[in-house]
Amino acid sequence: MHNILKKYHQFIVECHGNTLLPQFLGMYRLTVDGDETYMIVTRNVFSHRLVVYKKYDLKGSTVAREASDKEKAKELPTYKDNDFINDGQKVYIDENNKKVFLEKLKRDVEFLAQLKLMDYSLLVGIHDVERAEQEEVESEDNEGDEEGESDGGIVGTPPDSPSNTLDNNKPFGAGEFDSAIDVFAIKSHENAPRKEVYFMAIIDILTHYDAKKKAAHAAKTVKHGAGAEISTVNPEQYSKRFYDFIATILS
């Protein structure tokens, strides 16, 4: 991390933070009984308000790129490239958002290739607006039933607000968000089959293409063949394949 920090900071400043790369908030070293653990804190890709119902970790590789049965049993599994393809999933964003997103992506992966970094992913989280609306209605109905039962069927009138200072801070509507806070969020376009909000950012960027990775590339090439879409390839090849794949998922 320290080896790339100076160039990384310079890159973030030059692009005015207009990037899909991780936003590092802190670096810590914890020492417990002589054992050192290093931790990095980054900005959350997802929203604190809009629930993500499905998420994918995409590398642009197809070899062993599907979620395990153990992973699928989780409440919110992380699916992978082959799952994305088999699900027939697409990211439905308009032409302007698509252009801006791909410009960021291209600039970012070219920078990562310069740093000899690879094996990173695009984290994609999907918020289903209609599902969220339905769940909110059901939640309100359940709360109303509980209040009616506890109060003998009479629902009291809420007290007057002690202040009108919050009146101007109207809550966001369904699928709405503050782009200054949810910086990785993009709405689906009007003709999308479903009304969705996508959260997309690059994660896990700290893997160098060193001797160990070169050996892994050679071993996987022997096992799967030279033409196989393995994840362990040199940074230039990785960045190009990654960009080309992500470009195909945008509709």
From TrEMBL:
- SMART domains (UniProt xref): PIPKc
Q: Which GO terms describe its cellular component?
A: lysosome; nucleus; plasma membrane
Question: What keywords are annotated for this sequence in UniProt?
Answer: ATP-binding, Cell membrane, Cytoplasm, Kinase, Lipid metabolism, Lysosome, Membrane, Nucleotide-binding, Nucleus, Transferase
Highest taxon of the lineage: Eukaryota
Q: What is its EC number?
A: 2.7.1.149
Q: Name one GO biological process term.
A: phosphatidylinositol phosphate biosynthetic process
- Residues annotated as domain PIPK: 1-250
Here the segments flagged for biased composition (Acidic residues) are 135-150
Q: Where does this protein reside within or beyond the cell?
A: Cell membrane; Cytoplasm; Lysosome; Nucleus
Annotated catalysed reactions? a 1,2-diacyl-sn-glycero-3-phospho-(1D-myo-inositol-5-phosphate) + ATP = a 1,2-diacyl-sn-glycero-3-phospho-(1D-myo-inositol-4,5-bisphosphate) + ADP + H(+); 1,2-dihexadecanoyl-sn-glycero-3-phospho-(1D-myo-inositol-5-phosphate) + GTP = 1,2-dihexadecanoyl-sn-glycero-3-phospho-(1D-myo-inositol-4,5-bisphosphate) + GDP + H(+); 1,2-dihexadecanoyl-sn-glycero-3-phospho-(1D-myo-inositol-5-phosphate) + ATP = 1,2-dihexadecanoyl-sn-glycero-3-phospho-(1D-myo-inositol-4,5-bisphosphate) + ADP + H(+)
Chain intervals for the UniProt region annotation (Disordered): 133-171
PROSITE patterns the UniProt entry points to: PIPK
* One Pfam short name: PIP5K
Q: Which GO terms describe its molecular function?
A: 1-phosphatidylinositol-4-phosphate 5-kinase activity; 1-phosphatidylinositol-5-phosphate 4-kinase activity; ATP binding
Spell out the InterPro entries in the cross-references. PInositol-4-P-4/5-kinase_C_sf, PInositol-4-P-4/5-kinase_core, PInositol-4-P-5-kinase_N, PInositol-4/5-P-5/4-kinase
- Coarsely, its chief localization is membrane
Q: What is this protein called?
A: Phosphatidylinositol 5-phosphate 4-kinase type-2 alpha
Species of the source: Scleropages formosus
Encoding gene (name): PIP4K2A
